[in-house]
Write a structure and sequence with these properties.
The protein is of the alpha+beta class. Helix content is 46%, strand content 19%. The protein starts with a strand and ends in a 17-residue tail after the last helix. InterPro entries: KH_dom, KH_dom_type_1, KH_dom_type_1_sf, KH_Vigilin_N. Appears to play a role in cell sterol metabolism. It may function to protect cells from over-accumulation of cholesterol. Pfam families: KH_1, KH_Vigilin. One of its GO terms (cellular component) is nucleus.
């Protein structure tokens, strides 16, 4: 059996609290035999828990730790009184220790402790639960597991550990089926908690299963605990009982008592729950639930009351008008309860759906007379009357903000006036005298209104109603304001055609005439479907609907509906007056035609190196072409291999832009353009599959561009563009190929390994050219992106193709004939071939069909070199190696003196320039090591120990005219090539020129973090040196190749002109204008989230600065506008217009019950924003803590403010009724609260504390404590009675 030592005490206390007294006693007896000192405190703490009228002693509250021996004997038991009495503070992190005996361990392999399956399981548990586990092995080979973490995590981890590391057992426990639901608990919470506590799995049969057996799976100890808990729950439910008592419905009020007080007292005294059915439910059964003994007491008391009332009471029946029943009942039945409380008589009122007027009084005979008097008094205390008034006059009788009615209700507050919608009467209810006075006043108001008001009803088809209302009510609000009438349009859901107009007779007639005219005009409307490709819909609508808004403003009477994008429909619907719809249709068709025309696209191939020149400095060139040609030009990304520029727009504009881009390329290089006429029917065959044939011609002819016309255009013109010589070459090949295609075309495919292709092509295409010249056939090799890399295609006349095929197959056959040969190479040249990871050998292998060349290992003196491969390849490779050796033999070394400061420039980015010279001239170039102090010192030479400085230097260094060693570049190769390479190097030496640029522009030339100067240096491939600011110099030095300096200088001077123009523009933009505006208007000018002021800033391109509120020295009414003079004046006028409008506005405070504020404001302010937008006012609600929480401020134009106030007061009246009903309902639903007087708390008090002891007692306690300490352990006096340690 495993045992658990839990370092928190809750689980033990909770477990123990569930035991029956006998079990507690038995356990205490057994524990006392084991640990007498500890258990005495425990038993006192547990059994005397109810006798706490006296304060506990210090030892009870803070029990001493157990003796050393007892601790050793019971290491796994909770310590004495610490297990109960004072509930400990719960720590956020707890620790529990589990011990699993050897016989219950699942994994018993002693050699794999800390690893294997057991360790994996522990790691999974830690990751899943977040608890920390530590495992240790006891001497008896049992497993100790310490779990740390939050309580929930520890309990889950404990459950997993028991389930996965400990062998499982199972047991069943039988309890009554009806008790199962108490074991499960609400939403299964109790069952989950029980499983966690006991680390077991508890399976309860389903409700439809007749079995009462509960199955428990887990460890033996866990099963015992779970079984015990289940039986405790069942035992507790055995004590409870339910009983039903039949009591006549008429006697229920006597049992409940006035305001349910009597039944409440019985429930409180007996602890039994008593459920009496409400009067509206026709049931006679009273249900009792509780402990059996207490339940019996409650039932006896109720029976007694019932029997007494049955004997003593009698009844009388009286007739009371049905309309007066509600006065007898009173609000929420209070009047009936009041009569019952005063007289002890129950009054039975017939249900509201019954036509009976008989009221029955039940009670003791002597009390019935008094109760009857009270019933009649309450029935006759109120009267109901009505006033005839047309329903359309009701709102005028109520008045704005309810002012008219308020006068009546203030004089007679007990009178209730009710207006029923759709009925031509007003109902008054209240005391008889007050109702008579109110009726006279209302009749007078009705007579007056009928004399000076009128109404009319008109029929207009309901499908036109929303058009009459207009967007956001614009049309109908205009009519209401203009004619001072009220127009009532039925909602769409009613499908009614009747519109009612009320108000001044003249205004009513005018409004009627205008509405009928609008309806007549709408009847003449037409609907038209316009077919527009869906791809143009987004463009027509525009960004944020700007373009469609312009169209709608141009044709305000036409409604334009676009289909949902998901529908993939091309139909755009227009609806409105016939003429306007036709105009709008033509306008939109023209717009679509323009869009179609502007969507023409052409591709222009431009050599990659000229893209940056087409873009221009800062994108100036491309921007200019776009603006002047009104086209969209897209260039490929810098890292893309594409050379194609896409131009989109009108066809003529695209052609113009294309011509300009091509002219830029033509000006920059010796680019020729030739047009060749080739029949259109041959174009596809000339292009070849996936462009293979035409691509091979372009690559063979130096990368020229060959442009075929668009398929289907019918044009025969093919354009060839590129360097003049390459264009002529491409033209000849294209015409020759076209002639062949036209006469007779024949194609053959042959296969050869990809590594043979270079050998077949030959150096510079020499071999394949020889084949083509001798046979007249064209040979096409696969491109890098082609999938079939072995396929070679031969095109031409059949006899020429056959001859070329024969020659190529012979070459391929020779290549397949692998031979091995050798040659002699002097060992001194071996290094040249194998350095740089055998780069020379790799180049030979690639060029000569993958031939393998093997040099002897370094350190051996052999001069034999072995070659293996195709016979022709081996021979060609031998010849190439011999040429390289001859070059090495004829190699000379030249010195080229270039100052060290220019070396980096000569090398170029990543040594690209030097690599190019090395390849072009087949030489080797070696740069000297850098010197730390390359500049010669002008200071006199210092002598040390009588020796002259520099005595040991070479004569060459001492000669001031000779170049320094760090300036000399070594060139190795053939003499003529070394000299040519030397000239090329000297041509790369940068030259410096000076350009005068005003000092104040230097920082703009440099740009943010040097971006401007870097861009110019990259664009012109020069170095630009700007003098330090402290020098105040106007001279900027440009260093670079002579060819680049003129362009760089021109670019710099162009930039200076731009900066000077920007300076002048900044001076014009810095004009300042001040406007005096009262600070109270500032928030309105700024607008919500700065919307208004941002609009002014963007519209007039100015900067507007408001005064700083925290700056006391700054005038608070000055607004500063900065920008162009004309724009600042326009912005000032815009601000003053806003101020003028604001000055016309008024603010009114409205008392609005704070309980309805939230509903008027709405979710996230949506409702109040809608009101403010509708009435064009600003509404401010009081902040929390305001002196008057009901004060709401409405600001706007006077007429708008008045209408807005009327609207929110109507809303208040509507919402307040709901609030009052809700509050009354809440009060009714709350159970009665019985406050009990609470005695002032004395805090936590203990008796016999150490600090209350005498000095001698304290000393004795201190000595006893020191004597009990183990040897060698220092103990400081905890009582502070002595200073010894």
């Amino acid at each position: 059996m495993s045992s658990v030592a839990v370092l928190t005490q809750e689980s033990f206390a909770e477990h123990r609290s569930g035991l029956v007294p006998q079990q507690i006693k038995e356990r205490e007896d057994s524990t006392e035999r084991m640990h007498p000192p500890v258990v005495s405190a425990l038993s006192v703490a547990t059994l005397n828990s109810e006798e706490e009228s006296d304060p506990p002693t210090y030892k009870d509250a803070f029990p001493p730790l157990p003796e050393k021996a007892a601790c050793l004997e019971s290491a796994q038991e909770p310590a004495g009184a610490w297990g109960n009495k004072i509930r400990p503070i719960k720590a956020s992190v707890i620790t529990q220790v589990f011990h699993v005996p050897l016989e219950e361990r699942k994994y018993k392999d002693m050699n794999q402790f800390g690893e294997g399956e057991q360790a994996k399981i522990c790691l999974e548990i830690m990751q899943r639960t977040g608890a920390h586990l530590e495992l240790s092995l006891a001497k008896d080979q049992g497993l100790s597991i310490m779990v740390s973490g939050k309580l929930d995590a520890v309990m889950k981890a404990r459950k997993d550990i028991v389930a996965r590391l400990q062998t499982q057992a199972s047991a069943t426990v039988a309890i009554p089926k009806e008790h199962h639901r108490f074991v499960i608990g609400k939403n299964g919470e109790k069952l989950q908690d029980l499983e966690l506590k006991t680390a077991t799995k508890i399976q309860i049969p389903r409700p439809d299963d007749p079995s009462n057996q509960i199955k428990i799976t887990g460890t033996k100890e866990g099963i015992e605990k779970a079984r015990h808990e289940v039986l405790l729950i069942s035992a507790e439910q055995d004590k409870r009982a339910v009983e039903r008592l039949e009591v006549e419905k008429a006697f229920h009020p006597f049992i409940a008592g006035p305001y349910n007080r009597l039944v409440g007292e019985i429930m409180q005294e007996t602890g039994t729950r008593i459920n009496i059915p409400p009067p509206s439910v026709n049931r006679t059964e009273i249900v009792f639930t509780g402990e059996k003994e207490q339940l019996a007491q409650a039932v006896a008391r109720i029976k007694k009351i019932y029997e007494e009332k049955k004997k003593k009471t009698t009844t009388i029946a009286v007739e009371v008008k049905k309309s007066q029943h509600k006065y007898v009942i009173g609000p929420k039945g209070n009047s009936l309860q009041e009569i019952l409380e005063r007289t002890g008589v129950s009054v039975e009122i017939p249900p509201s759906d019954s036509i009976s007027e008989t009221v029955i009084l039940r009670g003791e005979p002597e009390k019935l007379g008094q109760a009857l008097t009270e019933v009649y008094a309450k029935a006759n205390s109120f009267t109901v009357s009505s006033v005839a008034a047309p329903s359309w006059l009701h709102r005028f009788i109520i008045g704005k903000k309810g002012q008219n009615l308020a006068k009546i209700t203030q004089q007679m507050p007990k009178v209730h006036i009710e207006f029923t919608e759709g009925e031509d009467k007003i109902t008054l209810e209240g005391p008889t005298e007050d109702v008579s006075v109110a009726q006279e006043q209302i009749e007078g108001m009705v007579k007056d209104l009928i004399n000076r008001m009128d109404y009319v009803e008109i029929n207009i088809d309901h499908k036109f109603h929303r058009h009459l209302i207009g967007k956001s009510g614009a049309n109908i609000n205009r009519i209401k304001d203009q004619y001072k009438v009220s127009v009532r349009i039925p909602p769409d859901s009613e499908k009614s055609n009747l519109i009612r107009i009320e108000g001044d007779p003249q205004g009513v007639q005018q409004a009627k005439r205008e509405l009928l005219e609008l309806a007549s005009r709408m009847e003449n409307e037409r609907t038209k479907d316009l077919i527009i490709e869906q791809r143009f819909h987004r463009t027509i609508i525009g960004q944020k609907g700007e373009r469609i808004r312009e169209i709608r403003d141009k044709f305000p009477e036409v409604i334009i509906n676009f289909p949902d994008p998901a529908q993939k429909s091309d139909i755009v619907q227009l609806r409105g007056p016939k003429n306007e719809v036709e105009k709008c249709t033509k306008y939109m068709q023209k717009m679509v035609a323009d869009l179609v025309e502007n969507s023409y696209s052409i591709s222009v191939p431009i050599f990659k190196q000229f893209h940056k020149n087409i873009i221009g400095k800062g994108g100036a060139n491309i921007k200019k072409i776009r603006e002047e040609s009104n086209t969209k030009i897209d260039l490929p990304a810098e890292n893309s291999n594409s050379e194609t520029i896409i131009i989109t727009g009108k066809r003529a504009n695209c052609e113009a832009a294309r011509s300009r881009i091509l002219s830029i390329q033509k000006d920059l290089a010796n680019i020729a353009e030739v047009e060749v006429s080739i029949p259109a029917k041959l174009h596809n065959s000339l292009i070849g599959t996936k462009g293979r044939l035409i691509r091979s011609i372009m690559e063979e002819c130096g990368g020229v561009h060959i442009h075929f016309p668009v398929e289907g255009s019918g044009s025969d013109t093919v354009v060839i563009r590129g360097p003049s010589s390459d264009v002529e070459k491409a033209k000849k090949q294209l015409l020759h190929l076209a002639e062949e295609k036209q006469t007779k075309s024949f194609t053959v495919d042959i296969r050869a390994k990809p590594e043979y292709h270079k050998f077949l092509i030959g150096k510079g295409g020499g071999k394949i050219r020889k084949v083509r010249d001798s046979t007249g056939a064209r040979v096409i090799f696969p491109a890098a992106e082609d999938k079939d890399q072995d396929l070679i295609t031969i095109i031409g006349k059949e006899d020429a193709v056959r001859e070329a095929q024969k020659e190529l197959e012979a070459l391929i056959q020779n290549l397949d004939n692998v031979v091995e040969d050798s040659m002699l190479v002097d060992p001194k040249h071996h290094r040249h071939f194998v350095i740089r990871r055998g780069q020379v050998l790799r180049e030979i292998a690639e060029e000569y069909g993958g031939v393998m060349v093997s040099f002897p290992r370094s350190g051996t003196q052999s001069d034999k070199v072995t070659l293996k491969g195709a016979k022709d390849c081996v021979e060609a490779a031998k010849k190439r190696i011999q040429e390289i050796i001859e070059d090495l033999e004829a190699q000379v070394t030249l010195e080229c003196a270039i100052p060290q400061k220019f070396h980096r420039s000569v090398m170029g980015p990543k040594g690209s320039r030097i690599q190019q010279i090395t390849r072009d001239f087949s030489v080797q170039i070696k740069f000297p090591d850098r010197e730390e102090n390359p500049v010669h010192s002008a200071e006199p030479v210092v002598q040390e120990n009588g020796d002259e400085a520099g005595e040991g230097r070479e004569a060459k260094d001492s000669d001031p005219g000779s170049p320094r060693r760090c300036d000399i570049i070594i060139i190795s190769g053939r003499k003529e090539k070394c000299e040519a390479a030397k000239e090329a190097l000297e041509a790369l030496v940068p030259v410096t020129i000076e350009v005068e640029v005003p000092f104040d522009l230097h920082r703009y030339v440099i740009g943010q973090k040097g971006s401007g100067i870097r861009k110019m240096m990259d664009e012109f491939e020069v170095n630009i040196h700007v003098p330090a600011p402290e020098l105040q110099s106007d001279i900027i030095a440009i260093t670079g190749l002579a060819a680049n300096l003129d362009r760089a200088k021109a670019g710099l001077l162009e930039r200076v002109k731009e900066l000077q123009a920007e300076q002048e523009d900044r001076a014009l933009r810095s004009f300042k204008l001040s406007v005096t505006v009262d600070p109270k208007y500032h928030p309105k000018i700024i607008g919500r989230k700065g919307a208004v002021i941002t609009q002014i800033r963007l519209e007039h391109d100015v900067n507007i600065q408001f005064p700083d509120k925290d700056d006391g020295n700054q005038p608070q009414d000055q607004i500063t506008i900065t920008g162009y003079e004309k724009n600042t004046e326009a912005a000032r006028d815009a601000i003053l217009r806003i101020v003028g409008e604001l000055e016309q506005m008024v603010s009114e405070d409205v008392p609005l019950d704070h309980r309805v504020h939230a509903r008027i404001i709405g979710a996230r302010g949506k409702a109040i924003r809608k009101i403010m937008d509708e009435f064009k006012v600003d509404i401010r609600f009081p902040q929390s803590g305001a002196p008057d929480p009901n004060c709401v401020t409405v600001t706007g134009l006077p007429e708008n403010v008045e209408e807005a106030i009327d609207h929110i007061l109507n809303l208040e009246e509507e919402y307040l009724a709901d609030v009052v009903d809700s509050e009354v309902l809440q009060v009714y639903m709350k159970p009665p609260v019985h406050e009990e007087a609470k005695a002032p708390s004395r805090g936590f008090v203990v008796r016999d504390a150490p600090w209350t002891a005498s000095s001698s007692e304290k000393g004795a306690q201190c000595l006893a404590l020191r004597a009990a300490a183990p040897p060698g352990l220092a103990v400081r006096c905890p009582l502070r009675t002595c200073s010894t340690v």
